[in-house]
User: Fold this.
Amino acid sequence: VRIGVLGQGTVGGSFSKLLRERQSQIELVTGTKISEAGTLTRSSGSFTEILDNADVIVEAIGGVNDAADYVTEALQAKKHVITANKQLLAEQGQQLWRLAKENQVQLRFEAAVGGVVPIVRTIQEALAVSPIDAVHGIVNGTTNFILSEMESKGLGYQEALGLAQEKGYAESDPADDVQGRDAAAKLAILSLLAFGTTVNLSDIAYRGIEEISPADINYASKLGLSIKLLASAERIDGGLSVSVEPVFLDQAHPLSQVHGSHNAVMIESTVFNEITLSGPGAGGNETATAVLGDLISIITGGASLPEHTEDLQITSEIISPYYLHLEISDRPGVLSEVAQVLADLKISIESVVQEAVSSTAADAQLILVLHQSKSTEVDKACQELAKLKPVHGRPRAVRVMHSSA
Ligand code: HSE
Assistant:
């Protein structure tokens, strides 16, 4: 089996190195001789030559347009393709899977979601015919690293982001990480795998971590909550709710103990309750390890392609408890005004903490945890609360997730 590698950056470079280092083990495990069919970089190599010489193409060139052309050509030429390109799959996965099927070759993408965590093959193979009710993932290493550093070491946001970039976790444009776009692309892929339904990137209302302040992290920890950027797809009312947003998790939640650049995906089902897989989600060697696993699967027979099985109505509505943070003037009647707005929207309060602060406008912070509420009603509540005279600035609402145990 001859392997052509497109791209020699963090992932492509690490993969080529691993391929050489592990050659004899790969041959031993698969019983197949492997060789390199050339590498393509932005400045060297010929794609046509590599394609002619290869049986498997590893696409690690990044970006969407060129990568889409290479992958399409490779599949049409009946070559198996492995890609780590989440944006490409989120935008064009459906067509590319169809093309692979028509040409009777495999398109594998374990490294596109969760780095080395084998979440794609778990959903695609182990759980292929099991009902899945929800998938919740920490699927961006950069943001998890930033939030962990802010939480555990009290680092500022910029300082933590700088560290994540230094360690090679962040995308070339870290805006994709911190604004939630990278996680949204991964969620689109997970949704198709888990629910057999197409979720376009434009269907996903994604929010990043930029608005999270050290104060939120501090108060949440007093309430026993820890913050994560969660990508969630869950069946509600016969449809599929999809979201990427910061969420507070209680300490017993399986995803609350996932720290640093680690990723984790929790799958919920009425049949098996819950499975959580976690591990390194970013980094060259880690991601290249997942690509290598795909190569082994291709050589040894591999998995079926995901089938489109359902057309679920996609919504961004969420039903969940929420954390609500308000800056207020501490004077008689404020609490009842706030409570009235919530009562009018039929939102019920679970707990309240008030702390004195000395800022120019406000003199207290009010932190409320709301019982199960609809996200649209919580949005309305934030708009109404912002209009109250004693409320300063913008109220911040963050979803809270408790463990089901
Ligand atoms: N920038 C991504 C992350 C890399 O931080 O998770 C892995 O997809």
The pocket of L-homoserine is lined by residues 115, 140-142, 169-171, 177, 182, 281-282 (CB under 6 Å).
